[in-house]
Amino acid sequence: MKDLISMRDLDRDQILHFMDIAAQIEQGDLIPDMKHKLAALLFFEPSTRTHFSFATAMKKLGGQTITMRGTASTSVQKGETFADTLKTVAQYADIIVMRTAVEGSARYASEVVDIPVVNAGDGANQHPTQALLDLYSIMKTQGTLENLTIGVVGDLKFGRTVHSLVQAMSDFTPRFYFISPSHLRMPSYILEDLKAKKVWYKEISDAEEHINDLDIMYVTRIQKERFTDPEEYEKVKNAYIITRDMLSGVKDNFRLMHPLPRVNEISTDIDSTEYAYYFQQAKNGVYMRQAILTLLLGGEK
Ligand code: CP
Known about the structure:
Blueprint: H1 12-27, E1 38-43, H2 49-60, E2 64-69, H3 82-92, E3 95-100, H4 105-112, E4 117-122, H5 128-142, E5 149-153, H6 160-169, E6 175-179, H7 188-196, E7 200-204, E8 216-219, H8 230-236, E9 255-257, H9 278-296
Parallel strand pairs: 1-2, 1-3, 3-4, 5-6, 5-8, 6-7, 8-9
Helix pairs in contact: 1-5, 1-9, 2-9, 5-6, 5-9
The structure holds phosphoric acid mono(formamide)ester.
């Protein structure tokens, strides 16, 4: 595998291999050496976790990073094309980690440069490194990826993390409740994939209806930046707020996950409960991104 662009490109064994390498790194059984490697972190869209966890991961591996955050101080302002920017950066770095607002841009980048490209989010399309850390988090909390019941809550139309997560879990016989306002449902191409794989799912609007049946509730923010009409965003921005009261009957193994950033989807008084897992989830991102850099740069040998 040269690049990591979409969860659709990975099969079950490849996903499990990422889990295994992340676990070995976390437990100290594998200490890859990236001393002579340099990652270019090109972020055309804002990020806290993905950027910092990739930077942390590379530093912990002994490697180095160069960073672009927005184009304000680059020659894009002078009219340089996206392709020329990528081809130039590829002269300096061993791997490109990139985030843009444009769907398909990471795939395009992987065709333009010879070094590995990691999709750190392309518009509303995919966020595969988030999906891999989410699966790693699910594995750590549940002890398995198999036969789990997962409620996916919020903006399922524009949320790239849930698109990648659902595709990633689909090889592990999950049951999904897709919980969203009616006009923010999961895209039909993803539902078609699930039908083809005979994955059970149900689309509902009430977050409490099946909460006591869930192993994982994966909550997402309404993606304000993807709305063309601000009034439409205002109508749905508070569609779901998970409160402590709602968790009174959940299963012992129930865990609440969120890719973050949180706006107000999860009440902060849940943070101190055993059910909150979103900050550990963010920490797991470092182990998984160490695994991703290691595997794409051939450092596991
Ligand atoms: N989960 C996630 O992608 O967070 P950031 O946007 O802060 O990177």
